Hints:
The protein has helices spanning 153-160, 166-169, 206-212, 276-294, 315-330, and strands at residues 14-18, 28-32, 35-41, 47-51, 65-67, 70-72, 79-80, 86-88, 106-112, 115-119, 140-149, 185-190, 193-203, 218-228, 232-238, 244-253, 259-267. The protein is of the alpha+beta class and 340 residues long. The longest helix is centred in the last third of the chain and has 19 residues, at 276-294.
Amino acid sequence: MLVTKQPVLKRFWYPIVPLSALSFEIPYPFELLGHKLAIWLDADGQPAAVSDRCCHRSAQLSKGVIINGCLRCPYHGWSYNRAGACVNVPQFEPDQTIPSSYKVSSYLCSKRYGYVWVCLAEDPLLPIPTIPEANDPAMRLIHQFYERWNCSGLRVMENSFDNSHFSFVHAASFGDQHQPEPASIEITSVEYGLNMKSRVPVVNPPIQQKNLQLAEATTIRTVDANWFMPFTRTLKITYPNGLVHLIFTAATPISDRASQIVQFCLRNDTEADASAESIIAFDRQVTGEDRAVLESTDYDAPLTISEEQHMPSDQPGIVMRRKLAALLKDHGETEQRQQD
């Protein structure tokens, strides 16, 4: 599926950039589903997103500056507000009316969990995913990483629900090479996603023994994972001692070939129990192992089940593909594929 060729995917919210990366002076450029955006904070400190092309001579607005909460083009100084309307043309007389056609496209923009989220359509199919644990005062939020991966979001999501790769991809972190048989899973389908539950035996290396406050060489993960269509998931892991480690991961689609991976975690412990630095280090090792394999896969992941071979543990990915295929059909679309 070529994500930039499927209009319905514009009707979802995607995390774009950490809120801390934005400023009141300089806009932030980003490409979402092939659409180039300029993102900034307005005078009220609220994130705004518009098309990254001035309507005058097509200069990139993201190369401009922010003046009084408005985005000023670097070429001729035209300024735009968060609605995309041009509010200042320096070359005009002070009392001269700015034509209403002087405007650029603007997009829904919000902030949640420390990130700026954007939807390219005026009528999102779903709200920004709700994570109840994020509102729990007993949980701390740790921002882990934000980087571009050269793979499709569907491949990332399937990998997140795949119990059968641990012994191979994660042999150096938590996978047991002597136990390649995947843990059984229980899947519940919901309208725009799925829930998966599982109990997964894993290796507990020294760094994790400290992070988890568990001295045993092996442990059990009780997993409660949610997939939010199209490319977002939460992985809630509960350990035998009651520690909760919930990982949020989104594969925001930059283009057909690339995704921006956004990841943070929520935990019911303190910095004194386990440092954020150590927690990030282990999870980065795990995601680095995933990235090495995922970037070798074909970015054009097919929704047609018969195009690739499967085994029983692939069921979550099969459900995802069928749900995405149904989404396209429900909105009058057919799957778009790369041409040979």
